[in-house]
Design goal:
alpha+beta; two-stranded antiparallel sheet; two-stranded antiparallel ribbon; 2 helices; 4 strands; elongated; binds zinc ion
């Protein structure tokens, strides 16, 4: 019985780990695991292509979670 309980706890911990680390900020949406995601370079949130605000830098595409992050990124570049 005790062993079963341990297994349940281990399973729960693994589940929590795979579910993703605790987010400091609100995620725009539950991320879908089998969908390609991109990391927002400003706040570190993962966004799907559909949800992303796409910006370009030297021809390279950057994916942001929101316009606010894109603008923050632009501000940082200007400095
Ligand atoms: Zn962001």
């Amino acid at each position: 019985m005790a062993r079963l309980l341990v297994l349940i706890i281990v399973g729960y911990v693994l589940y929590q780990m795979f579910k993703g680390r605790p987010a400091e900020k609100e995620l725009p949406k539950e991320s879908v695991p089998d969908e390609e995601t991109f990391k927002d370079p400003v706040c570190g949130v993962y966004v799907t292509k559909e949800d992303a605000v796409i910006g370009t830098l030297d021809g390279e595409k950057l994916h942001f979670c929101s316009m606010a992050c894109l603008e923050r990124f632009r501000d940082q570049l200007e400095k």
